[in-house]
Amino acid sequence: MAVSVALLFTWWGKTVDVDPLTRVGQVSGLAAVQLRFAGTAAVLVVVLVLAQRWVAAAHRDLVTRLGCAAVAGLATGIIAAGVAVALHGTPLSLWPNAGDNRWILEWVHRLGRGEDIPDHYPPLWLYLIGGWAKVTGKPTVQALQDLQLAGAALYGPAAYLAWRLVLRPGWALGIGVVACLPFVEPVKPYPQITLVMLIPVVVKLLAVVRRSAALTTRRAMLLGAGFGLVLGLLFLLYSGWFVWCAPGVLVAFGLVTPWRRAAGRALLLAASAGTVFVAVSWVHLRGLLNPSGGTTDAYFYFDTYTEPAYIAMWRNDRPYGSGTDWPPVGELGGVGLFTLLLAVGLGVAIAFGWRRTVVIAVGSCVASAWFIRFWLASQAYQTRTVRLYPRTTMLILYGLLVLTGFAILFVVQVVRARPPRSAPFGLLLVPLLFFFAAAGSATADRYMPNSRTSSTGFYAWLAHATRLGNGTCPPYGAGRGCDPASRKVGTPNPPIPLSGKPPPR
478, 367, 375, 503: which is closest to 433 by C-alpha? Predict the structure, then answer.
């Protein structure tokens, strides 16, 4: 249901006839999509209300499941329909033959000629483009448009169906689909689809491990093989999340495994999953494990210059709309209300669910990405490489959104039942530590050297641009506002824009 609704609504958006290159056409097209969404939503609500009133009680759960699935499809179908309006009149994809798509399509063409492609890049997306182009008879750049629209539409269904492994329909919709919305990226939809599916699959896997005492040896092996297959396919779609989550998943596995009662079956399940995972993903995994494989990521873009503890918004390499200061200055210690709510949600999730598998699993993945993020970013100056560390923003933010959603779920459950045992005090300090880390980094970032006289960073800039008592410039100020040949001792040179590049050591 979710998939059908999402794709049908996207197709409906393609029938909107406007000139998307004029602002009037853009507004009119978006309004047309909104009108169709409102009408569809109204019909859906009426049908669900009538069904709950007249359908037999035994079938009402089915009605609920179908209704939630339909809403999940609409949630991102409307986004894809809007993108279809933007592409109205052109058969080409977003970002055609440019940027990442340039070499992605080149690799697709190599596959079509029977040539080898680099094994360090997840290949499944390439096979999907080539396969769809062959089925439809379209050039690859046109087939890519179809997959971009379908990918954008399927964010909601992918998140909903994956979280249904863990949650009832309403909560899968309210937590899984809501949390995925900040990451919709039609240009390259496959990394984010992998993310919103990977986390609930990992949660379910660890939940099965925790209950492995009830499994037979045969069932443990079969379940492990099933999880290994799913994880292997997701890995072939996009592997970055696996790298950043791996340490956290290992920690979570150690915490949830019933070592005294069923260590053998838990380890058998894990071994079965690992074996199938390696077998399925080896075509790509070998490229990541090969020391000479892969490419050096030296692309420093907009988000690599953002204060590194800021995770409230993912902008990638598109700074348009960010204004003169990014990230925006928050209300409390440089941190905005949204980040504060995430910290509160994290605290409530820990307080009420610190022993639950979902909190252990998601929290461990977030913590793992948090440490790896700063480890990679802290080495950027010496190595002059990025190594994709800004992409951990999505993993951290998604995990915190999910935990905030579960915090609401836990509170609802507590209201309906009795309060659970309180979490250890040390764990309750985690959200405060998270907030203090974000606030400290945000505040310090405002004082980074900046030649703009209106910024607080100008104070530090002056410290570099002012000549020292011996007539020389501070080592990093020479040529960047400080000129020993033209200014008196103790005075700064006129402000000049900073290059954004670190000085030579």
Answer: 367
